[in-house]
Amino acid sequence: MSAKELVQQGYDFFGKGDMESFMSILHDDVTWIFPGDKHPLSGTHKGKQNLMANMSKIPGLWDNFHVDPEFMISEGNKVFCKVNATADGMNTIFGHYFEVNDDKLSLMMTFDDSLSMVNAMKK
Predict the structure, then answer these.
(1) What is the domain count for the chain?
(2) pLDDT in tens, 59-68
(3) pTM of the model
(4) Are residues 69 and 77 in contact, defined by beta-carbon separation less than 8 angstroms?
């Protein structure tokens, strides 16, 4: 499976809420970087458990949160995605960067529209 196909599989699993399958394609030492320090998802999250603990915040912060990759650019083990992101009160775009190692997602760096995300958060 190519890096691009693996990333698409990750979006498919996440979109269906199949977090068990999503976890199965993550490298044990996966790192998720969400730049910033004030957003509830901000930080560098290392390891599957830390990544999932942070992602598990999403349903409590936004109603009807969805991400849909519009296109991907891939070179070797690197993939960049332009992502359409929606939730109640939010319709925006994100940029997501991935690296694949040992046929697993090993790095995800999100360039999300944090202002739109904060404005759409549940009060």
Answers:
(1) 1
(2) 999 999 999 9
(3) 0.93
(4) no
